[in-house]
Design goal:
Rossmann fold, 6-stranded parallel sheet, globular
């Protein structure tokens, strides 16, 4: 039976299990949008900027275990997706991005809104396609979903000329696809497993570093079994938060530039590191040349390109995390590392990384703690990038899997609001809190319209300090307080929310924090809280540039904190 390219696209998307599409129509995608009403199974969410659509697809993918799908027209529509595509590529999120293109006769002739999006996105996609034969469209879409969702997930772009969308051809859905050049490691290398088990067996000071690969593989139970059987302390990367319960006795928080001092010290002093689904990126390791110089490294990752890329590896294991851990769990023997675990506990007590200071103003870390307490730790937290992101990672407790969604590798300001939309649509029964920076949220604030139009119960907490806070903190600590380009003139965010028909409240005093959070929780729809926090609050710990992992700057002595006093110490209540 003959169908148009647009019909073939929609029917193939449905066969791939797609239910949600995020996008904005334009001239080069009008045939697709004209066809959508024929397929009510596909729910289209209209965004105000294509970057928001890509971030929403990313957020949706992270919580739904499906590829996120977004539509954009040619030219500026397609290029507006680029930041979202790069973000998904860095954080290994499966996206299928469908872009319109000018008609085939006009390609290469600088036609109106023509851009070579395939060439532009080549370095930031797993693969991309320009479909020039309508007969191959369905096969192309099937391949794209397979590539996006298997192995190390990532984004795929399909660029479809307008006349391909309109052309009628026989529709033959391909039951099978053949990608001879696309290989995925499916078998676990038994010899490497035995080497790893042997090394773990003789370790005196082992540490597990759990990364986002554990989340992507869904290997939560396998990691827990491994840690408990081998009695190995666990630290996570920033994107690995939620891969191992933070209230577990073997959990020692997260490492890196703003990670806990005791976690960094544990890794730096380990004799065996079991790195699971992490990249050894610079934010996690600090100076890689000085990283854990006395440790043997076991690195488990599904992407062979990551093995040995940043840190020398003694036992490389390529494979799916769940399968590898299952195999290792059969080989290792039950052990105890009481002295080592006790030593890390002593470091945690000696280095109170999460102390809260109280001052005349409202403190951002206190706000995050209260959101945790009032939600009982049951919310999914979505952040942008900056100080608010680090406070959310430090002071909310992630005992449930995959409940912290943020931009990691690319560090994309503006990620939080549109991503929270995707997260809410992907897990509609879960409470979703968007914790935003006053600088970050203004990059995609127009998506408040999308939240209102879809009536999504996303709760928005703006940590408003009047600065691009993390940049200001670096300028304070490392650039002689040269505050250039970071002071923000901010609008009235509550008034903006009201303009979008979203209720909101401004909070300036500590005693008003909990009532405001409760008001947001009790409201059945979206709600915005503008928390006016101390302008120059800093995130501690922080590792200075070029320093070792265990050389964090901790919170300054009390006498150096203007009008402040220590309010509470130690590990937060769980």
């Amino acid at each position: 039976m003959k169908k148009t390219g647009a019909q073939i696209l929609c029917e193939t998307l449905i066969k791939e299990g797609v239910e949600i599409v995020f996008g904005i129509p334009g001239g080069s995608t009008l045939p697709i949008y004209d066809t959508l009403p024929q397929y009510p199974q596909l729910r289209h969410i209209l965004f105000r900027h294509e970057q928001g659509a890509a971030h929403a697809a990313d957020g949706y993918a992270r919580v739904s275990n499906k590829a996120g799908v977004c539509f954009a027209t040619s030219g500026p529509g397609a290029t507006n997706l680029v930041t979202g595509i790069a973000n998904a590529y860095m954080d290994s999120s499966p996206l299928v991005c469908i872009t319109g293109q000018v008609g085939r006769p006009f390609i290469g002739k600088d036609a109106f809104q023509e851009t070579d999006i395939s060439a532009i996105t080549l370095p930031i996609t797993k693969y991309n396609y320009l479909v020039t034969e309508t007969e191959k469209l369905s096969t192309t879409i099937r391949e794209a979903f397979h590539i996006a969702q298997t192995g190390r997930p990532g984004p795929v772009v399909i660029d479809i000329p307008k006349d391909v969308q309109q052309e009628e051809v026989e529709f033959n859905y391909p039951e099978k696809i053949d990608l001879p050049g696309y290989k995925i490691v499916s078998r676990v290398h038994a010899v490497q497993i035995k080497k790893a088990a042997k090394l773990i067996g003789v370790a005196r000071k082992p540490v597990i570093i759990a990364g986002r690969g554990v989340v992507l593989s869904g290997a939560y139970d396998e990691l827990k079994e491994f840690a408990e059987k081998a009695q190995v302390p666990v630290v996570t990367t920033l994107l690995g938060l939620g891969s191992f319960p933070q209230n577990h006795i073997l959990n020692f928080d997260w490492l890196g530039m703003h990670g806990m001092v005791h976690a960094n010290m544990a890794v730096q002093n380990a004799d065996v590191i079991i790195a699971i689904g992490m990249r050894f990126d610079d934010r996690a390791t600090a100076d890689t040349k000085k990283f854990a110089q006395h440790a043997k490294v076991i690195h488990i990752d599904i992407d062979p390109a990551e093995i040995g890329k940043n840190v020398p590896v003694d036992v490389p294991i390529v494979g799916d995390i769940k399968n590898v851990l299952r195999a290792i769990n059969k080989e290792i023997e039950t052990k105890e590392h009481v002295d080592w675990i006790s030593l890390i506990g002593e470091w945690r007590y000696e280095h109170q990384s999460l102390k809260i200071v109280e001052s005349e103003g409202l403190l951002p870390d206190y706000v995050i703690q209260q959101i945790y307490k009032e939600t009982y730790g049951n919310a999914t937290i979505v952040t942008g990038v900056g100080q608010h992101q680090m406070w959310a990672a430090q002071h909310y407790v992630y005992n449930k899997p995959n409940t912290l969604i943020m931009s990691g590798g690319l560090g994309t300001m503006g990620f939080e609001l549109p991503a929270a939309i995707g997260v809410n649509i992907g897990c509609p029964k879960e409470a979703v809190w968007c914790i935003a920076g006053d600088g970050s949220i203004q990059m995609t604030i127009q998506e408040l319209a999308t939240i209102r139009q879809e009536n999504l119960p996303v709760k928005i907490a703006i940590i408003n300090n009047g600065y691009l806070g993390l940049v200001r903190q670096w300028q304070e600590l490392f650039y002689n307080r040269s505050y250039v380009g970071v002071k923000l003139w901010n609008p009235d965010f509550v008034a903006i929310a009201k303009a979008y028909d979203i209720p909101g409240i401004k909070v300036t005093h500590r005693e008003d924090v909990v009532p405001a959070i409760q008001k947001a929780i009790d409201n059945p729809g979206p709600f915005l809280i503008d928390f006016m926090v101390e302008p120059e609050s800093n995130v501690y710990p922080i590792i200075p540039p070029g320093e070792r992992l265990d050389k964090s700057l901790e919170i300054p002595p009390m006498e150096t904190i203007n009008k402040s006093k220590v309010m509470s110490y130690g590990k937060r209540s769980k």
